[in-house]
Amino acid sequence: MRRTNYRERADIELREQLADFREQLFQGRFRSGQDEVEERGKFKKLRREVARILTLLRERQLGVRGQAPATGARAKEK
After folding, report:
1. What CATH number corresponds to the domain at position 53?
2. Which of 15, 37, 38, 69 makes the best surface tag, with the fewest CB within 10 Å?
3. Residue bearing the bigger pLDDT, 77 or 19
4. Structure-model confidence comparison of residues 41 and 65, the more confident one
5. What's the domain count of the chain?
6. What DSSP string describes 44-76?
7. Interatomic CA distance for residues 42 and 50, integer angstroms
8. Which residues have CB under 8 Å from 29's CB, separation 6+?
9. In whole angstroms, how far apart are CA 49 and each of 43, 62, 76?
10. Does 10 or 3 have the greater pLDDT score?
């Protein structure tokens, strides 16, 4: 999935997708220990997708790239 598609999604959807990718990584690592893995390149792709989602969520939290700044203790200090 491309990063632009992630930008169109809500935070809740991104967190659900993140949980799904992390579960796939866990299951893949479990299977790799049992030598049942068919496609080892999939790990690299999943790790990159996880990193993309985490980066996007952090950008939104910090208010980077045109997103509204996060409301909370830090926003009140300014």
Report:
1. 1.10.287
2. 38
3. 19
4. 41
5. 1
6. HHHHHHHHHHHHHHHHHHHT-TTPPPPPSHHHH
7. 12
8. 43
9. 10, 20, 33
10. 10
Query: Residue 40 and residue 58: Cα distance in Å, rounded?
Result: 28
Q: How far apart are CA 32 and CA 30, in angstroms?
A: 5
Report whether 3 contacts 51 (CB < 8 A): no
What is the domain range of residue 42?
3-66
Residue 38 has pLDDT above 80, yes or no: no
Inside any domain, residue 60: yes
Tens of pLDDT, residues 17-36: 999 999 999 988 877 766 65
Tokens of 2: 């491309």
